[in-house]
């Protein structure tokens, strides 16, 4: 800590005397140490006790909740969407708290009230299931901040309070940006994490640059809406059109937590619900979420918007199925019928027997070239997930 404090002071003094370098460092995004925000960094580093106070206050957030029947399916498995919503709530709490507390303490002259908005969720794997009657324990921790974003890691434990057993259920990484509370909201700057280890900062910077590039290159699927009804006898079973489902939901005030926009956790819960219906219609068995691929939120969904969620199967392996869900948002009270694609994601489900063991999944029947192309791309994603899982198991 002493070393970090003094080296940063020397760097700040040097670059403060070199305005042309200071401007260059802003362009390459190193504003935490090298940019013209020297004043806020100097304040944060000059008072190490103040930094320690902030670090201890914002180190982590812990949230616990008992799983009740409304959180689970008929077999007692807690919905993946319920877990995702809790994860996002925990991440939002610590990201919003960090921005407001740290900004007010370190940069009072530049402070403006704000709230954290979810912009990205890294690939999330559901390690162990949770059941009705168990307690979900979530711990959220800030692991990196850039000039305008906050990385949060959330760990979920499932505790059986009758048997006194606890197991790791989920681990997720989320990215937030602070926005002003006005309408329209403005992007706000993030104060740097106090007394960060240089190696940890370098690794965080790499993760930040990677997700930033992926977000910039991401494109949503241009899905063609297929008739989703299963009541028509002319639709063949186990085809895309047989199981495709469409949900429509009006984003109410109560779901927006007092803000003008819907939290990302609410949207992910609805996406999981839509995908779960698709998986159930395809298998006609108990189905559970096993993973959510990296998801980028490109458009915020305003309070009072009508959202349409379309889910359909893209690929089936022997014991799993990949389902894509796209979310379109329409502000119905605007007077202008304009629909935007807010978010899309791939979710993986498995089919379970009465003993909660995976069973074979009915294979998807391809009907046209468009479905074949999606199936081929889904197979590539499935193989990539499998490689990643094997690599992570080898490292552990």
Number of helices: 9
The description of the largest β-sheet is:
6 strands, antiparallel, barrel
SSE sequence, one letter per element: HHHHEHEEEEEHHEHEEEEEEH
Indicate the structural class: alpha+beta
Helix content: 25-40%
Low-confidence stretches: 1-47
**Strand portion, in percent?**
25-35%
Indicate the overall shape.
globular
Instruction: State the end-to-end CA separation.
Output: 30 Å
**pLDDT average, as an integer?**
84
The beta-strand count equals 13
What's the Cα radius of gyration? 23 Å
Give, in spatial order, the strands making up the sheet with the most strands. Answer: 2-6-3-8-12-9
Lay out the secondary structure:
Blueprint: H1 2-16, H2 19-27, H3 38-46, H4 48-58, E1 61-66, H5 80-106, E2 114-121, E3 124-126, E4 135-145, E5 150-160, E6 165-180, H6 198-217, H7 240-243, E7 245-250, H8 264-283, E8 286-292, E9 295-297, E10 306-316, E11 321-330, E12 339-352, E13 358-359, H9 369-395
Description:
By secondary structure, the chain is α+β, with helices and mostly antiparallel strands. It has helices spanning 2-16, 19-27, 38-46, 48-58, 80-106, 198-217, 240-243, 264-283, 369-395; strands at residues 61-66, 114-121, 124-126, 135-145, 150-160, 165-180, 245-250, 286-292, 295-297, 306-316, 321-330, 339-352, 358-359. It has a 6-stranded antiparallel barrel with strand order 2-6-3-8-12-9. Strand 5 and strand 6 form a beta hairpin. The two termini are 30 Å apart. Residues 1-47 have low confidence and may be disordered.
